[in-house]
What we know:
Blueprint: H1 5-10, H2 13-19, H3 29-34, H4 43-56, H5 59-67, H6 75-79, H7 84-92, H8 100-117, H9 135-145, H10 150-173, H11 178-190, H12 211-227, E1 231-234, E2 240-244, E3 253-259, H13 273-287, E4 295-301, H14 314-319, H15 338-344, E5 362-370, H16 375-379, E6 383-389, E7 391-400, E8 404-405, H17 417-435, E9 439-441, E10 445-446, E11 454-455, E12 458-467, H18 470-491, E13 494-503, E14 506-507, H19 510-522, E15 529-532, H20 537-541, E16 547-552, H21 569-588
Parallel strand pairs: 3-4, 3-5, 5-16, 6-15
Antiparallel strand pairs: 1-2, 2-4, 6-14, 6-16, 7-12, 7-13, 8-11, 9-12, 10-12
Amino acid sequence: xxxxxxxxxxxxxxxxxxxxxxxxxxxxxxxxxxxxxxxxxxxxxxxxxxxxxxxxxxxxxxxxxxxxxxxxxxxxxxxxxxxxxxxxxxxxxxxxxxxxxxxxxxxxxxxxxxxxxxxxxxxxxxxxxxxxxxxxxxxxxxxxxxxxxxxxxxxxxxxxxxxxxxxxxxxxxxxxxxxxxxxxxxxxxxxxxxxxxxxxxxxxxxxxxxxxxxxxxxxxxxxxxxxxxxxxxxxxxxxxxxxxxxxxxxxxxxxxxxxxxxxxxxxxxxxxxxxxxxxxxxxxxxxxxxxxxxxxxxxxxxxxxxxxxxxxxxxxxxxxxxxxxxxxxxxxxxxxxxxxxxxxxxxxxxxxxxxxxxxxxxxxxxxxxxxxxxxxxxxxxxxxxxxxxxxxxxxxxxxxxxxxxxxxxxxxxxxxxxxxxxxxxxxxxxxxxxxxxxxxxxxxxxxxxxxxxxxxxxxxxxxxxxxxxxxxxxxxxxxxxxxxxxxxxxxxxxxxxxxxxxxxxxxxxxxxxxxxxxxxxxxxxxxxxxxxxxxxxxxxxxxxxxxxxxxxxxxxxxxxxxxxxxxxxxxxxxxxxxxxxxxxxxxxxxxx
Length: 592
């Protein structure tokens, strides 16, 4: 009989523990401690209680749990002394049917891993979708994680253990993240489209108005129609816009969405998650024959990344009247102007000014996005509420010294441009760290025409400084530029620093942030507030209407702009549920 919360919440401690038997390998103490938090409001609440117990456990207890897990395709699998759960999971992943070569490879990886870390490699072999990883995916993950720092791998082992327990708990409850699975599947299918030169290598790259980009727009359009949107169009800049009408004519709109273009060799979930989560909610409304007191406008923004042309946020910018005619004359790497690309795609350039939205017609803008960072992953939380999108300043810089012979120039006579920039980089690291939530990066550092035996006389570098508020950003910028001047003066160097970009911070509107917070609480999770270090379409809409964002946890250390970018269908399910709750909150509020 499937596990349900009511019997679990009311059972005796011994009976409740029996209901949760087998979640963690030979370690009932985790469930026993988590049960002290009863009553549970949801499965998500229970899962987080389990995560918290293990996170607070002594290190030796964590190690005992890790070591309680069998090796993947190890001797225990062959001899069959595994727990029923482990035997089923390894068998489902095909590890009981490895080729001799695969088995030998896994045995070597097991030996290397144990020698490096002192505990067995742990992987939730049923994967982020719950349907199982292939043997090749398992082997590739195994080999990649061998290179992790021991502390990072320890934390990853515990996260994988929680993922195993989450799937086992779903099985016990006889439930599956059906809506999250659908969102997952949409993203996987959309990722089949990739630009030439990348598609052949199995890499995902979708840049503005390429064939792959237009194919993505068509797919999203078709799925929106299937979901029950009343109007679907590809607008004059390539945005895919779906509208689900309100219960009565003339009502205001809630705008949501994100972008469907990608960086080169990027991930499947950046941007696209924010299109498909509200699509799943609209489909549910349509299936129930339900209309809300407001309309829902879901926008798949055509361009956010600035990969093909230097026109970042082109899609969302067009909706606030920030499309610059001079962009049309920009040329891509192949010499194709934006105007030519738009004409080839059948877009009506003359209609671009008509895309500007009237803020009075909208309640606000909300965006769901994968976090693109490690914070939620480290916190063991599926969802986070964004407090502000960081303001940023970027500079293109050059340090000028004197190129001289590396062998004959004494150390105290050098005018080394590169070491001066290295000193600045260390200062940026220290200064940004003082704020806690500021960040600073020198992402490009080059010695033009440098040689192994020449003291660098010139060094070009970038400078990227970000903070949750403009005042905090400006203070960081002032300190870094002052230190740059001081380093140059002390070392007898000259420098230039040209600001190439300045973006204002976009703090979440308090009322909309609170709606996200209530939505997170409603699914049974604690509210975790965090700034967004990355820029998003929401920061453009912020210029004309209130906005707030919800982050979804990423796997693999939260990496993004990378093929390893990932999240689970369970976390996507919670995002859909939170978004639905936000819609219900709005529906029950007095009509503005």
